[in-house]
Design goal:
Strand 9 and strand 10 form a beta hairpin. The protein is an alpha/beta fold and 249 residues long. The protein is built from nine helices and ten strands. The strands form two sheets. It has a six-stranded mixed beta sheet, sandwiched between helices. The chain has a four-stranded antiparallel beta sheet with strand order 2-1-4-5, with helices on one face. It folds into two domains: 164 residues, 3-Layer(aba) Sandwich (Rossmann fold); 72 residues, no CATH class.
């Protein structure tokens, strides 16, 4: 098997006397969707924040594309090909959908001076932004202010902005939160399509989405890994059933 895109070893984080993450090991390969699940307080948010660079680990290593990125700032990780979406949608609501994606494209290319003019003045940037919107199912919404899109549409737009950076690995933090049934189905289909081309690490409470999408699942409890494996093995694991899946398993 090829080397993993992401290799986490012994990742540990304390907040005072609280152990938020306790020596976590995890790999994500290209073309794989790896889900991380656990009850509230299990350490999922701290874990993904460390991967993204928002929180510094106390111990352990994060290797991406073979490089130790454990101490790199967020923007350096992004330039290497690590992208992230958040629990709370992070958009410019007054800007159109195509302008939001165009700004992500400009940031990717490092042309900061372009912020002095409209992002959509560059025909090449606009064309690429519209192509990305088409990929996520927002081809007809490019002109609409991001703040007027449905919650599901805003989730799709945030993924479009992440994809505009041409990531090798995408970190998704609870993208299903607040979605209706139809919107959830559409986003599951989108994430499945995205994960065919890049690695995707999904932190999620929606078990329907997790078991529909994941090739591998890691379960956290009080900051430690209690199980990791393919979905069938996780569903059958007695400790996982007792602590988390319960009757649903």
């Amino acid at each position: 098997m090829a080397d993993p895109l992401l290799q986490v070893r012994g990742l540990t984080k304390h907040f005072g006397g609280i152990v938020a993450n306790d020596a976590i090991d995890l790999d994500v390969h290209a073309g794989e969707l790896h889900a991380v699940i656990g009850a509230n307080g299990a350490g999922k948010s701290t874990f993904i924040a460390q991967l993204g660079g928002d929180v510094a680990p106390d111990a352990g290593t994060i290797r991406f594309l073979g490089r130790d990125i454990s101490r790199l700032p967020v923007h350096r990780r992004a330039h290497l090909g690590l992208a992230r979406t958040f629990q709370t949608v992070n958009l410019l609501p007054a800007f159109s959908a195509v302008e939001n994606v165009a700004l992500a494209l400009i940031a990717r290319d490092g042309h900061a001076f372009r912020f002095w003019r409209r992002a959509t003045d560059d025909c090449r940037v606009t064309a690429e932004a519209r192509a990305v919107l088409d990929r996520v199912g927002l081809a007809d919404a490019g002109h609409r202010p991001a703040g007027t899109l449905s919650h599901g549409g805003q989730r799709q737009l945030e993924i479009a902005m992440a994809l505009a950076t041409r990531p090798r690995l995408l970190l998704c933090d609870e993208p299903m939160a607040g979605l209706g049934l139809g919107e959830s189905d559409s986003l599951i289909a989108l994430l499945a399509e995205v994960a065919r081309d890049i690695g995707l690490l999904l932190v999620e409470h929606d078990m329907q989405a997790v078991f529909a999408l994941a090739r591998r699942i890691t379960v956290l409890d009080r900051g430690r890994v209690i199980a990791s494996g393919p979905p069938a093995a996780i569903r059958a694991d007695a400790e996982v059933q007792r602590l988390y899946l319960g009757a649903e398993a």
